[in-house]
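YM 10:42: Membrane-bound metal-dependent hydrolase sequence, as discussed on the call
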Amino acid sequence: MLDASHALIGASLAKLVPNPYLALPLNLGLHFVGDLIPHWDFRTRHVQRSKLTTIALSLSDAGVGYALGWWLFAGSVPLQMLQPEG
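YM 10:58: structure's back
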């Protein structure tokens, strides 16, 4: 599955379940459920494409997913709970 899809699924679950102790195991399970849905990817083992191109495509995909997730759900999850207490 594309990284963008995984990022959006994870961000959606984080919005619905803001407790990270519950969201993490749920997200791990949801990851495998999402992979059951037929989808396409960048064919990272494609021999006629350079490694640099494959890496650039993968990073672009991940960046788009994270940017969309941040844009859609920014402020929904209290990120200060992830900071160490000091």
